[in-house]
Amino acid sequence: xxxxxxxxxxxxxxxxxxxxxxxxxxxxxxxxxxxxxxxxxxxxxxxxxxxxxxxxxxxxxxxxxxxxxxxxxxxxxxxxxxxxxxxxxxxxxxxxxxxxxxxxxxxxxxxxxxxxxxxxxxxxxxxxxxxxxxxxxxxxxxxxxxxxxxxxxxxxxxxxxxxxxxxxxxxxxxxxxxxxxxxxxxxxxxxxxxxxxxxxxxxxxxxxxxxxxxxxxxxxxxxxxxxxxxxxxxxxxxx
Length: 239
Prior knowledge:
alpha/beta, globular
């Protein structure tokens, strides 16, 4: 049998663990409510994205953080402090599954296309320690440039991240688990031996059924998960 420390559990975040709206839309709502971002800025960003995605989907993804250009990095901490003290709307079944992995001694990882600082804020509210692989923003002099520091954590990028973490921590990919809710999670699911389609759309559900993967509906009911007191794993603890 594979030793528990050789097994990882890779979870998508938005729509898999966390009920809508997505973390990034929650952050945009915060910026709008606190006059850090104007509705014209959002409209201009969406318009640019809509025009570019037809001709250059990859480029549109890379440029779709322009609404953050010039905003201060400290807004990330401000947003985190604004989160409700009584918890966030996680799917209880998802948290139960994560707890099961922790109890087995597995390494738990969030692999998400959301912004890195949003994922880290949410990780602090989970009942155990996790690794984070999310989209990194470029910053200069304490302000975001609106560009990405690395590739957007979606599609094949998720699979590359999973393989890199497996190599770093000596994980057996064939024995690892992955949980995703969209077609953009498919490369991550394909990268491991134990794949689970969570709250899947019809296309992903069909693939899962044809491949014999478990299909889970974690959407009902969503409930608040209290903020935990323990801290996230540090880089030293991860080694």
